[in-house]
Amino acid sequence: MLMACSEACAAAGAPVVSTYEPKGTFERAGSTEIYHSGSGALGLVMVPDVFGFAHKQVFQVADRFADAGFNVCVMDPFHGNPWPMDKFPPKPEHDFQGWLTREAGWGKMRPHVHDVVAKLKEGGASKFGCIGFCWGVSIAMQAGQETTFSGVGGAHPALFGHDLDYTEKVQCPVVLLPAQGDADTAPIKKILDRRPYGSKCVYQRFDDQTHGFVAARGDWTKPEVAAAAGKAIGIMADFLKHAMTDPPAEASKNCGGGAAAAVVEHGHGHHGTRNANHPGHGHHGIGHGVGHKRNI
pLDDT tens digits, residue range 97-152? Predict the structure, then answer.
């Protein structure tokens, strides 16, 4: 039986109040409200956590990606009605899973995601990625089942027991950055290592950070949290640039499986598995001065 929400999500507590002033604009893509920041050919659909647009941190994350060269649209999956704070953490009788399915299941979200893609195309984007936070990673993973997207994933994922189902169906490289208490990504990696794009996937744990540190639960007034969030954004930005701009995996790899994606690294308190193609991320940078190593 699935939990109301993940233990890590419940333990992370309420969102942090942010005084950030967004740099972008609030617009619409079809019937969906979006926050738009940045420009260019690299389009990024961003899916917030269950707190939706009620907390500003996600807009700061979007602006960071825009500064890194992305054309970003954050979508409001709950159309102004996110999960209410007086029911957080949710109890079984609140039917959190049922609410998520009714309000923002993939069947309902899919047309809105494609409305956002169309909006990005109007603004000049030609390649697309999808990044989510917490529950939003589940939407990104399902978006990755379609050829529209070159790379998907996100930070502190909450996949509610569907990890392997989503992974079996995803058609593009994946980035997953779990935090303290989040599920192990090893079973996902085992599957994706066999794919032609397996060597492009990225896995990195942030076990010294609370679930939600890149999004609504991250207190960026604390230098160590801001540094970790900056590092996570940098890893995701670098991953997306490779996924969107590198040549596709060679067809011949379909027969023999992809190269192993990751090596184990230990350092700076962020213990976990990281792609060997992305060894040089700093704590604060977003794609600057990053070295790249290719598996042969």
Answer: 777 778 878 999 999 999 999 999 999 999 999 999 998 999 999 999 999 999 99
Which residues does 192 contact at the CB level (< 8 Å), separation at least 6? 167, 170, 173, 174, 198, 201, 258, 261
Task: Provide the 3-class DSSP secondary structure of residue 247.
Answer: coil
Nearest residue to 53 via CA among 79, 73, 29: 79
269 backbone φψ class: left, alpha, beta (φ>0; ψ -120 to 50): left
Burial (CB count <10 Å: 0-12, 13-18, 19+), residue 215: buried
**Is residue 31 classed exposed, middle or buried when 0-12, 13-18 and 19+ CB atoms within 10 A define those classes?**
exposed
**Res 65 pLDDT > 60:** yes
Q: Report d(CA 81, CA 278) in Å as an integer.
A: 38
State the pLDDT at residue 60: 95
Closest CA to 156 of 177, 138, 141, 172: 177
- Interatomic CA distance for residues 20 and 218, integer angstroms: 13
The pLDDT score that the predictor gives to residue 95 is: 76
Exposure letters 122-144 (e unless 16+ CB within 10 A, then b): eeebebbbbbbbbbbbbbbbbbb
* Strand positions, DSSP E, the chain: 25-29, 32-37, 42-47, 71-75, 127-133, 151-155, 174-177, 202-203, 262-265, 272-275
Report residue 13's pLDDT band, with 50, 70 and 90 as the boundaries: low
pLDDT band at 158 (very low <50, low <70, confident <90, very high): confident
